[in-house]
Please model this.
Amino acid sequence: MTNYDLILRFGSALLIGVLIGLQREYAYGDPSGGLFAGARTFALMSLFGATAAFLSEELGAAYIFVGLSTILALMVIVAYFVGATERGEVGLTTEVAALVTILIGAICYAHSVEFATALGVLVTVLLAIKWEMRNLVQVLTREDVFATLQFAVITAVILPILPNQSFGPPPLNVLNPYKIWQMVVFISGINFLGYILIKIVGPKRGIGISGLLGGLASSTANTLSFSQRSTSQPDLNKPFGVAIIIGWTIMFARVLVEIAVVNNKLLPVIWPSMVAMGVAGLLYSVYLYLSQSAMDEEQMDVSNPFELGPAIKFGLVYAIVLVISKAAEVYLGESGLYFSSFIAGLADVDAITLSVADLSRGPNGISLVTAKRAIILAAVANTVVKGGMVLSLGTKKLKRVIWPAFLIIIFIGLGFAFII
Model:
């Protein structure tokens, strides 16, 4: 290992330790009030871990690292008992963070600076969201916990034993149970992020954050909710319009994330269209926001996306869309795929996005341009459905607020699909 590598690894260990230590000092308020380790001590612990790993490698004896780490761990344990006795506190957060910091320092030297840095940032984030985690525990219901645990257990047990091979008669052998369930977990995870954010923010939210979080959970449900509420609260049509359009823009971001995970080679082809539609909606929502002053502070009801029923339903929809898309492409050509994508997008843009992205992988898959057009048409179709909800359920004023953004997004999507 060159001197440059050593400087990089030990320097990274130092910075990671300082980062974690600064968070501990900031969270504790007054370091002199009993905090056993601050920024300097955490930095030294991380350097200790890196040095122990270095000596262990140089001398060819793993027990050196084990022995040195054990000594420092015992010192941390002693500090914990002394502090617990003096302050009457039994929390272990700082002490456990110190032990993890030692191991991160060792990872910096012995394994990967990138992984160690990511782990250090993760530890810092976990330490920093103490109050947010407590608030989340307070607002979660028993049904939320049960639904999440049920989904986690079934995923952990079922996913590993599902066959990782394709079924069906060629050329329609596109049903892979393992990959289908992976997509279910992926989409449920995105939806769960929005659900958790809604729970953390609480019942009173500004209209912009309502649309953002609603779009993460379900842009269709978000549109339906605010369209219905516009009839009982006509004075809030502009704020409701902001929430609806922001929810639409989040859909385009979701599409890009899904494509990046499933087939990143498709991303350079499709991102200009998704960004253009999203930015157009975002700019219009900013215009609406600046032209109104009322703020919504009502509760938004969103169900836990980790419930088993909706997860299985999405898996079935994804499998059906996958087969239909492949059949349309094989027997009807590109026009058939475009038609099936538009029809599928009327119901669920996630399923068709994932299936088309999967079909465009590999040398024998559909072309990237064809996949781009199919996904854009699905996004346009989904926007048409949500625009139809506003037209059929919203007030006249809400319709006037929404229609410019609706037409702009549709025309931009069609332009990118067939002209640009």
Observations:
- The chain is about 80% helix and 0% strand.
